Amino acid sequence: MPAGGFFVSLQSETMDMDIDELYMRRCLQLAANGLGRVRPNPLVGCVVVKDGEIVSEGYHQEYGHNHAERNALLRGADAVGASLYVNLEPCSHQGKTPPCADLIVEKGIRKVVCCNDDPNPLVAGNGFRKLEAAGIEVVRHVLEEEGRTLNRRFFTFMEQRRPYVILKWAESRDGFMAPDGGRYWLSTPRQNRLNHRWRTEEAAILVGSETYLKDLPSLTPRHYLGPQPQPVVLDRRGRLSDLPSHWLHLHTPTVEETLHTLYEAKLQSVIVEGGRTILDAFIASGLYDEVRILRSPQALASGLRAPALPPINTNRLTIIEP
Length: 322
Description:
Number of helices: 10
Distance between the termini: 41 Å
């Protein structure tokens, strides 16, 4: 039985279910396990199916380590004549690991079913061409939209040449970020733990100089075990000095230039946790992909209003109630 105890037999599934979609959903489920740990690589899962049963599976677990296909194919199962399911086009070039397409050919795979084409210029169709040249049947674009959603950070970075941007703030139940004349802790302990989990999933966290001066934030995921994102401060007025050496200190005057600098630093995603001024600038630019709001059970009645959003697709808006 493959790792994780997952087992599927064709005979055990209803015949009206598309079997390629069934196995691709398992790929996406596996791939999600790498969130926060494989960046800037994409999230990838792989399932090997032979005679109607999963004989092996794997996922990309850590940046610089084996890709999903290699993890699945090196488990020792006989893959000759099998079908391989993977949610992103197999790589065809030598990077930190050898080309996965070569290993797929070597192991005698008969058919490869894939979710998304890889926009990386180093791959960009070359993986599929290598497989087809070896006589392997290739089926593409199975659950394509689900795959793009899972790897939305990767696709945004590759296609739009900027990080995937998440705007995040806490607000009272009547829509204020802070009371008049002081700080106020709005999020509940449960919301705070969730916020720290979110931090582990992204490459960077950005605040403005005002937030840094008032709060001296560490921006660490203290309440959730996971990788540390890159702390970034946007200091347009040059107010800060003697920052900790691991902070990225930006003076870029516009949102566009800020995102370009983060892109050049190979930071695939960023949570903007700044104050009202920074959040308003991102909203006005339109250069954001998600909004996440932690809504407090308490009312403030007055104070600093939370940002006003234009009409937004509900798929891009997450509101966490107490």
